[in-house]
Write a structure and sequence with these properties.
The complex is a heterodimer of chains A (about 500) and B (about 130). Chain A has about 500 residues and is mainly alpha-helical. Chain A has 20 helices and 2 strands. A two-stranded antiparallel ribbon of chain A has the order 1-2. Chain B has a single domain, classed as Orthogonal Bundle (Helix Hairpins), CATH 1.10.287. Chain B is elongated. With about 130 residues, chain B is mainly α. Classes of the chains: A mainly alpha (about 500), B mainly alpha (about 130).
């Protein structure tokens, strides 16, 4: 049955197609886009198939090449990563469709085959990080995804190469720390398989080498997911990247990082190690609370909308880590739900910003004045995305924040709950400032000479291939909100680690 | 002193790693940062390879005396091959990271005609105004 091979297919198919896109692209540039979309569609279909199997039959164990787990590489898919596979491959596909027009405008035509090669590799790397059950394999796929994102970010506007170079330096430190952590675990246990490690480690929890390994793994992952004090590479890199690239990496890359952090804390190490034996979750919770406030305050200070959204991402990563760190069922549910929701919200907002940039070249808040008259559909989508980030029902952002607050209250962490609410208020300030400009501010030209410039601003929407992906993400935001109860009861409640 | 000599491989890797770390954070020249990054990565590779070694003339894992007479393989005679295999992958990753970083440095140099971070930031600021 082909459906048995889905866990391998989801990685191998895009990997091979990426290779052929590059070769075909030397002679014939037109099919590159379609080949890339074919690869990503196959990944998406496989991801949905995997999710179906996981819901009906439970965790999938796939042995690559038929090798037994501790020696061979094993792909393990449970409810948590099945969900994230679907999200990543879906956002990859949607942003891919969007990228056709926006990339043609933003980068030179000769580089388009290479763009699609690397884009396919990036999606494949993130999917691989999610699907694998082997700690070292995760490092390799992490580096594939990171290398692809370095290259894609460098394609952007002026300043992108330097931002990308700084990201290379920071990203390499993060990956090397992760590698060192895996090395320490290998010394003490002699194993690299996550399930095997989690069985071998409990006897060694008091060894200093294991503590050092845990610290290295967490810091390495925290750099990759742009967790608060280690976030400095993110705003520059994501601001200067091409619109389609920032929409994809903003939506998924930090979320996959958060997923890896959950795996390290609750699969490689047992939950009681991270929550009770070490004060790891308490420390993470406090830093996350700081991240929520810090991200939103710096977002208020920005004029460039893309950079403003980048600081919002830092706050969102704070929400997710806070939900994980309160260490109870509600908080964890909220964190996983927020990973899903945030992928859609951030993709939606960055897609809108990209569409506006495509049509008008506007990037700062001031230039967004009276955008509603010009691009009503795009502006409406921005409003829904913004309301979801603030957390207003019926958008999905409300439900995940609801669970996060409940989690913080259940854990008696009143300050975390307060930080979350303050940060939501601050993000309301951030977005209402933009929304006011879009919907209510008079356009610049109507100011001075009233007599002649009562000109109607013409409607000038983005092309359909950009609008439809935006609408899909908006529909995603609304549907995730409407069906959040079902998502929790069929998928997310099984992801909560034992002992919560 | 014995503490240091007995585990000198770890000390060497820590010292090398910190040299690389300092260069990545303290230096303002992009090529020096890149060199620091390389030292950092190779330090980790050295560490992995050193944990595979054994005392007493252990060698590569090829079964001795395969022709004719059979000898049972003893783990003490052979180095652990797995860290070496892992590091082959890590070397590939390291080389590609260096490649990407060098390509970025070339892009930056073409655009700004300098590799000093301060000067690049100055010209970026000037461009914005």
């Amino acid at each position: 049955m082909i459906s048995d091979q889905f866990p391998a297919l989801i990685i191998v198919f895009p990997l091979i197609i990426a290779f052929f896109i590059n070769i075909v692209g030397w002679w014939w540039k037109r099919p590159c886009f379609y080949m890339s979309m074919l690869a990503l569609s196959v990944s998406f279909i496989s991801a949905v198939g995997i999710l179906n199997t996981v819901i009906s039959k439970g965790t999938i164990h796939y042995r690559l090449g038929g090798w037994e787990p501790p020696w061979g590489i094993e792909y393990v898919v449970d409810h948590l990563n099945a969900l994230i596979l679907v999200i990543v491959s879906f956002v990859g596909l949607v942003v891919g469709i969007y990228s056709k027009k926006s990339i043609e405008k933003e980068i030179s035509e000769a580089k388009i085959p290479q763009f699609y090669t690397i884009y396919t590799l990036l999606v494949m790397g993130l999917l691989g990080m999610t699907v694998t059950g082997d700690a070292f394999n995760l490092y390799v796929l992490l580096e594939i995804a990171s290398l692809a994102s370095y290259a894609l970010i460098a394609l952007g506007e002026d300043g992108a190469p330097l931002a990308s170079f700084n990201y290379v330096i920071m990203g390499t430190i993060g990956a090397c720390f992760y590698l060192l952590g895996v090395g320490y675990l290998y010394i003490v246990t002699g194993s690299l398989n996550m399930a095997d490690l989690s069985q071998l480690l409990p006897n060694l929890y008091h060894s200093k080498a294991v503590l050092v390994a845990f610290a290295f793994l967490m810091v390495g992952v925290a750099i990759k997911m742009a967790f608060f004090p280690l976030h400095i590479w993110l705003p520059d890199a994501y601001t200067h990247a091409p619109s389609a690239v920032s929409a994809f990496v903003a939506g998924t890359m930090t979320k996959v990082g958060a997923y890896v952090m959950i795996r390290v804390m609750f699969t490689i190490f047992k939950p009681y190690f991270s929550t009770e034996m070490l004060p790891a979750t308490t420390i993470l919770g406090w830093i996350a609370a700081a991240a929520m406030i810090y991200g939103c305050i710096l977002a208020i200070a920005q004029k460039d909308i893309k950079r403003m959204l980048c600081y919002i991402i830092i706050a969102e990563v704070g929400y997710i880590v806070m939900g994980v760190s309160v260490g109870n069922r509600m908080g964890f549910t909220g964190a996983v739900l927020h990973i899903v929701n945030d992928a859609f919200m951030m993709a939606c907002l960055f897609l809108v910003v990209g569409a506006v940039y495509y049509k008008t070249g506007a990037r700062t808040i001031g230039e967004y004045k009276a955008l509603f008259k010009k691009m009503p559909l795009t502006s409406g989508s921005f409003a829904i995305g913004a309301l979801s980030v603030i957390g207003i029902p019926p958008t999905c952002g409300f439900f995940s924040k609801w669970y996060l607050v409940l989690g913080a209250i259940n854990a008696q962490q009143w300050l975390f709950a307060a930080a979350l609410l303050v940060s939501s208020l601050l993000s309301a300030v951030v977005f209402f400032r933009v929304l006011q400009n879009i919907f209510f501010a008079p356009s610049e030209s109507a100011h001075g000479h009233e007599s002649e410039t009562h000109v109607e601003i013409k409607r000038d929407e983005a092309p359909a291939s950009m609008l439809i992906p935006i609408f899909i993400t908006v529909a995603g935001i609304l549907l995730l909100g409407a069906y959040s109860g079902q998502i929790i009861s069929t998928i997310i409640q099984f992801t909560v680690p034992e002992g919560f | 002193m014995e503490y240091i000599i007995a585990k000198y491989n770890y000390w060497v890797y820590i010292v090398l790693m910190m040299i690389g770390f300092y260069a990545m954070i303290g230096k303002r020249n992009l090529v020096k940062k890149l060199l620091g990054m390389n030292v950092f990565q190779w330090a980790i590779i050295l560490y992995y390879v050193s944990i595979a070694s054994k005392k007493g003339g252990a060698t590569i894992p090829i079964v001795m005396g395969a022709h004719g007479h059979y000898e049972p393989a003893q783990a003490i005679q052979y180095l652990n091959p797995l860290p070496h295999c892992l590091m082959l992958t890590a070397i590939v990753v390291g080389v590609s990271t260096t490649g990407v970083a060098l390509a970025l440095i070339i892009m930056i140099h073409r655009r700004y005609k300098t590799l000093e971070e301060d000067e690049i930031l100055e010209s970026l600021e000037a461009f914005r105004k």
